[in-house]
Amino acid sequence: MNITRRRGAIAFFITLGVLLVGVAVTLNIGWILLNERTVALAVLGIILFALLIAGVVLNTIFLVREVRRNERQNSFLNAVTHELKTPIASIRLYLETLQRRSATVSEEQKQQFYTIMLSDSDRLLATVEQVLKAGELGQRARHLNRTTIDLESLVTDCIAIALQRHNLPPDAILLTPTPGAVRLHTTGIVEDLRTAILNLLDNAVKYSPKGVHVRCSLAIYRYTSVTLRITDTGLGLPPTELKRIFNRFYRVSSRDLQKIKGTGLGLFLVRNIARQHGGDAIAESPGPGLGTTLTLTLPLVNSDTPAPVAR
Length: 311
Fold this sequence. Notes:
This protein is 57% helix and 13% strand.
């Protein structure tokens, strides 16, 4: 219902803008016809007409953007509420079970409950950290010293965390060995880059509902950059969504993709972290149902080169 209402509001503002432009064109043509013998008045009418049209167009664009921004923010609030409420409800349920039926619950069941509650608390913590990271990203990174980072080691650590977080077998996420055993390094804030890589891996896992087969690879790009490519065989994306998914709060409107829960902040964080480190992030996909490749690009540095201080 809310989506239909918002789409109706967007359609209303667009229609209103078109009607106002039509009225302005009609009035301007009438002005010119009435004052065609007076050049000064005709020129004045054309200038006023241009200003009026520009104002109407800008106003319509602004209103439509505001409606869409509000829609994304509402979706974000709903998603965050769900991401916070679900693990809290689960933890509370198991705690109440342990409290009321402690005598009848076996030790094996208790250990199972503890494992589930720890997993739910990790999910809760990850959501909170993601929201906090989005708020502090632009403020904190400038004031920290950057260090030289071995990307292969960092990616390996992140893969181990993702496998444990999602209870996946070791072959679900694999890192292709770098050709020639070359060690690829960049400079940056290790925790921020860890956040970016984990978000990429989590995204690949979440959008592979029929089986997780994620392949990661590191490579040198144009002699000055290093790329991390993470490819999945999941739901894929239409071409129109490849850039939008990096916007804050943005969620793809496809029914299949909407079933996947999320805050709309993960890829926004990835792109902003990459750009703060002098790189970028892009998405590629052959189409819906054909998987997605997310590429993180970062500056390549010599491991012997002292890391610059972020300012």
